[in-house]
Amino acid sequence: GENVEQHPSTLSVQEGDSAVIKCTYSDSASNYFPWYKQELGKGSQLIIDIRSNVGEKKDQRIAVTLNKTAKHFSLHITETQPEDSAVYFCAASKEGSTLGRLYFGRGTQLTVWP
Amino acid sequence: GAVVSQHPSRVICKSGTSVKIECRSLDFQATTMFWYRQFPKKSLMLMATSNEGSKATYEQGVEKDKFLINHASLTLSTLTVTSAHPEDSSFYICSASDLRAFMGTDTQYFGPGTRLTVL
Q: Does residue B101 register a pLDDT over 60?
């Protein structure tokens, strides 16, 4: 099955700095890579996703890059703000498969200091 | 759009009782709903996948007789934790997906989660 590794497990940055979280996956057939933000005691919210037919996607301060050859994808948050503090999960799946199962990384606790 | 709700948000029960958690897709039809369990500071663990009108598919190690899943309509799935024990205390999260909406689109929308505490 798919194995998703996520690093770092914790990340602290100063407000205004950039934050980068990296994930690798093992199954070259995976083609859909979403990122989720989970605030304390709450469910996960999809913040951005990328499919294997593109290498980069951007939405305001958030961007995701995908390197299919190396099987890794990264989340980039620029101009970080304290409200960006949360746990971020990456995931991978084979879109269009019968079950649509997501395989999650272990999460990154991001803390943005004012 | 694509809102998923869960009820209750928090439940405390006595050991041996059963607890039902509801997951609803509010503005779309969910052909597939997923149930996850999350321990503190851990990632989400998929428990089971339910398709509307059919039996749920459970992940290895998840007891189907303990975690009963019903997906009777395109907008509602329920997870019942039967004869709950303290070790069942956890954060349970559902997600919903409409696999018909667009061929190859597997976007899952997550509910806010239910905190279960078994005394």
A: no
